[in-house]
């Protein structure tokens, strides 16, 4: 039993009832102790290092002519970059208020990050293909373990929103998720290059002799992503899901695509699919519900998609006539923690225990040697619960789709804007950098040091 001195007892007796109630409320959902103390010298050392941002063009150039030396260089870049980027985010979490980090969900995320940091910082230099294979196995296992991060992180910040300023919460989550995307990009790119090296050439030291100008992809990067093809693929998947959820009797809006239909650009397909899929889902669902609320039996208005190609950007506008965004939701559109329906969001997030935030599983896991819609061969299976996320019922609101889409869009120096006309509909504008020469949008140091 904890014994308090007279001074402590007196201070405790002076605490207001509202504060006591607040602490009790926190205790209900905080069943774990605060993360254990660890010596900080190792973390301090890595926090002092700057992350080294890269661009799609750099990733493409590095992987075009894949040799054993280049593959090992890639392994060692990932080996040093992962603990650096994780260390920065650990330091950010350490600066949170004490009561926040005792939250069960945020403590879970912290422990996962520290475990990964300790694991990667202790890996020695990769000098052989065999060592690279072992390194890739560690990376794959870590990626799988971290599939719980997004839902646990969002649940945590919703639960502790009374103890931090809303803007600070959203800044923290955005920084954490951008860093998470950046780590998965370099990790999955290296795994894809390693798979390519082994599958196309069964002996080390060989060069890939394919004409790089005719290649469709380099690792996870699609060199000529066709906007129309991606939209059509996402449209089919999304319409099929909506048909299944609303029933065969429901009329699903058509999706009309016009503009520069041959526009292409280098991109990571899973990022683009997630954004387009989320925007189309919102538009289709809003259109269906708007029609039902008016008791109309006429066919639903189509979703209009316009593709515009400029010398430096490709811009996609997705327009619907689904009645616009409700007034109580619009101010909190990009927030992970603010907005109405807090209890409902927490309940729904509990039903999505893991999330990779991709659309890959909607098409089923790729089979070995199978070519996808963009002509790339990939054997990297995405283990996630995205299928349960994307096929959730229409009333299962999570409140993370648009904020995640914005983070994805801005990651490669793009943008996502939403314009709502109440009573009419929504226009979503997605801008993609066409040249692939923009560095990833990440915080290169711990936030407390990035002043």
UniProtKB/TrEMBL annotation:
One of its GO terms (cellular component) is mitochondrial matrix. It is found in: Mitochondrion matrix. The keyword Mitochondrion applies. The keyword Chaperone does not apply. InterPro entries: AK/P_DHK_N_sf, BCDHK/PDK_N, BCKD/PDK, HATPase_C_sf, HATPase_dom. Pfam families: BCDHK_Adom3, HATPase_c. Its EC number is 2.7.11.-. Residues 53-221 form the Branched-chain alpha-ketoacid dehydrogenase kinase/Pyruvate dehydrogenase kinase N-terminal domain. Its main location: mitochondrion. Keywords: ATP-binding, Kinase, Mitochondrion, Nucleotide-binding, Transferase. GO terms for biological process: regulation of glucose metabolic process. Residues 271-425 form the Histidine kinase/HSP90-like ATPase domain. GO terms for molecular function: ATP binding; pyruvate dehydrogenase (acetyl-transferring) kinase activity. It comes from the Eukaryota. Belongs to the PDK/BCKDK protein kinase family. This is Protein-serine/threonine kinase. It comes from Microthyrium microscopicum.
């Amino acid at each position: 039993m904890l014994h308090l001195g007279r001074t402590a007892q007196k201070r405790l007796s002076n605490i207001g009832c509202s504060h006591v109630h607040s602490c009790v409320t926190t205790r209900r959902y905080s069943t774990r102790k605060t993360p254990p103390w660890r010596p900080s010298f190792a973390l301090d050392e890595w926090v002092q290092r700057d992350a080294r941002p890269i661009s799609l063009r750099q990733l493409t150039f590095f992987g075009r002519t894949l040799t054993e030396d280049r593959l090992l260089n890639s392994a060692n870049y990932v080996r040093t970059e992962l603990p650096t980027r994780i260390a920065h985010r650990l330091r950010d979490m350490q600066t949170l208020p004490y009561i926040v980090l005792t939250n069960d969900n945020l403590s879970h995320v912290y422990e996962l990050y520290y475990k990964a940091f300790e694991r990667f910082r202790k890996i020695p230099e990769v000098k052989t293909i065999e060592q690279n294979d072992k390194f890739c196995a560690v990376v794959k296992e870590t990626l799988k373990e971290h599939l719980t991060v997004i839902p646990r992180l969002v649940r945590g910040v919703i639960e502790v929103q009374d103890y931090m300023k809303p803007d600070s919460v959203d800044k923290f989550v955005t920084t954490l998720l951008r860093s998470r995307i950046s780590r998965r990009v370099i990790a999955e790119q290296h795994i894809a290059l390693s798979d390519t090296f082994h599958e196309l050439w069964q002996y080390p030291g060989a060069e890939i002799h394919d004409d790089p100008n005719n290649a469709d992809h380099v690792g996870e990067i699609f060199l000529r992503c066709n906007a129309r093809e991606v939209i059509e693929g996402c449209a089919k998947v999304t319409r099929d899901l909506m048909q299944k959820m609303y029933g065969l009797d429901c009329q699903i809006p058509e999706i009309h695509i016009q503009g520069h239909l041959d526009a292409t650009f280098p991109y990571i397909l899973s990022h683009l699919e997630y954004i387009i899929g989320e925007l189309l889902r919102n538009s289709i669902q809003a259109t269906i519900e708007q029609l039902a609320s008016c008791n109309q039996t006429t066919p639903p208005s189509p979703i209009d998609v316009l593709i515009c190609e400029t010398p430096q950007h490709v811009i996609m506008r997705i327009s619907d006539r689904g009645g616009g965004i409700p007034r109580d939701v619009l101010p909190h559109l990009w927030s992970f923690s603010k907005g109405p329906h807090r209890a409902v969001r927490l309940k729904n997030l509990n039903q999505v225990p893991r999330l990779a935030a991709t659309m890959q599983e909607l098409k089923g896991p790729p089979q070995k040697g199978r070519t996808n819609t963009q002509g790339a061969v990939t054997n990297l299976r995405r283990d996630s619960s995205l299928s349960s996320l994307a096929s959730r019922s229409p009333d299962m609101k999570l409140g993370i789709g648009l904020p995640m889409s914005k983070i994805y869009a801005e990651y490669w120096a793009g943008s996502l804007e939403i314009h709502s006309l109440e009573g009419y509909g929504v226009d979503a504008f997605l801008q993609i950098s066409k040249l692939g020469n923009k560095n990833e949008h990440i915080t290169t140091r711990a936030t407390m040091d990035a002043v």
